Amino acid sequence: MSLQGKTAVVTGSNSGIGLGVARELARAGANLVLNSFTETDEDHALAKSLAAEFDVSAKYIKADMSIGQECRDLIKAAGACDILVNNAGIQHVAPIDEFPLEKWDAIIAINLNSVFHTTAAALPVMRAAGWGRVVNIASAHGLTASPFKSAYVAAKHGVVGMTKSVALETAQDPITCNAVCPGYVLTPLVEAQIPNTMAEYDMDRETVIREVMLARQPSKEFATVEQLGGTVAFLCSSAAAQITGTTLSVDGGWTAL
Ligand code: NAD
How far apart are CA 202 and CA 221, in angstroms? Predict the structure, then answer.
């Protein structure tokens, strides 16, 4: 599993799954480039504390993944990019005929277009280095659908499709490209959905979690950010060198139903 000496760029990594992925990659020895669209003292302190905890180098680079040029500049500013984890993502829930256009545009820009831009910028760097791993954090919603999540479902299906196409384009390079499809993970993104769902169904928090969210997951458990991080670390390992163009579901059986 050693990723010693590799540099991992993880988009949207000051929270949730991205942070869990960054931690597990650092545990395997990778140097980190953390990212989000904010730039606070805490963002830089986070990079410092991960560097100290795992004895790797780590820096934080602000870049807004809704802006194509900033996606490409992130890869340039990283200085190296052996591992690219496209994780940044947002969600909005509304019927399609009431879906605000600016929310549609933001979801498509951050969840889908950013993957195009960062990957396009990273592949030449990986080819020059003679090694590379692209891991896209898609979703169970990249393989199935839910009502009122049209933009998110469209973007995540797009990511799954792009993953396969990039895998074929890089099949004869020492580069792999895969997607990880989480079910529900209790991160700030999911926490933000709970109050609306409570109001919509007139349910308390525990009932929303049990009857709406975990009802889709046969395991009846949330996946954890550590489990997602471990899955990404595996896809970056030498054991996974021939795994490319796949989607790896971490969803407690959701997509097996
Ligand atoms: P989160 O809200 O905790 O993290 C999202 C991250 O993206 C944050 O670091 C945030 O700062 C960053 N981000 C948002 N907009 C950005 C922008 N414009 N530029 C740069 N960074 C930006 O959510 P999460 O649940 O950890 O989500 C991470 C990824 O996992 C997303 O792509 C999401 O779609 C996917 N996912 C999450 C779940 C889940 O249940 N939590 C399930 C399936 C897929």
Answer: 22
